[in-house]
Amino acid sequence: MTDTTAEKATAAASGAAATERFRSKLRTDAAEGDTKRVDTLVTELLTATHDIIRRHKLTYAEYDALKAWLIRVGEDGEWPLFLDVWVEHVVEEVAGEVREGTKGSIEGPYYVPDAPALPAEATLPMREDEAGTPLLFQGQVTSVDGTPLPSAKVEIWQADDDGFYSQFAPNLPQWNLRGTVIADGTGHFKVHTIQPAPYQIPTDGACGQLISAAGWHPWRPAHLHLKVSAPGHQLITTQLYFEGGEYVDDDIATAVKPELILSPTPTGNGDDREVTYDFALDKA
Ligand code: DHB
Ligand code: FE
Q1: Which ligand 1 atom is at minimum distance from the Cα of 202?
Q2: Measuring from atom 1 of ligand 1, which residue has the nearest CA?
Q3: What is the SS3 assignment for 173?
Q4: Ligand 1 pocket, residues with Cβ under 6 angstroms
Q5: Which ligand gives the minimal distance to the CA of 253?
Q6: Domain that holds residue 57
Q7: Signed CA dihedral, 125, 131, 136, 140: sign only
Q8: What's the predicted TM-score (pTM) here?
Q9: Looking at residue 127, which CATH number applies to its domain?
């Protein structure tokens, strides 16, 4: 583990960065001005909460613990993390119900737009001595009907071999393991990267406190994050996982789908591995 990164990566710092990032992309359009919908959703949320309190005879001590914890989630800047780990997967499930193409998955808190543009065959920006097994990730972007999509955009972001994301942990180059690959004239792309490591959500903040209080584990399986898009088609946000990897069957964020599991094979060159995954985009 890179000591400098590990030493200073705190829940409060990554939480603050994730909160800042979220504020800058806020989608306010849908939720404004519909009083009836707000009434329905909030009333149902509160009613469900009241039911739980009655059913389990919540005590004042537990109510105070809940209040203190909610306050701490805010202080630690961990609302993006909490929501993306325990809630977003159902929002994504509902959004995905109307699509036929490649399955989506959660975006999570660590996407940054406008990562450096790269040609159809490229190496993700990484440090000279970047740790991890080299991985060649390649494929083709088509429409759901199989038509190739020239110059499709394949945005990739991932954690490094220690499980850290650039711009959300200290001492990493700004765009480390982030890139916007522009596919070729037939929608093909080839990305040289490293195999990411399982990702541990920060354990020293409010979310970590909840995880240990509930006897859970803080891990997500190793994953690549992707946003794939092309003109006239719906952008897909997804993640890809690795067959047989730790936590694939027990993801804290419940974001694994069987269609999103890769099975890389050896290239014959040392430990290097390669895998092909094609994306099918729904029409806009
Ligand atoms: C979180 C982190 C991730 O890398 C991810 O993909 C989803 C959620 C999180 O810490 O909330
Ligand atoms: Fe992630």
Answers
A1: 10
A2: 108
A3: coil
A4: 81, 84-85, 106, 108-110, 199, 201, 220, 253
A5: 1
A6: 3-281
A7: negative
A8: 0.91
A9: 2.60.130.10
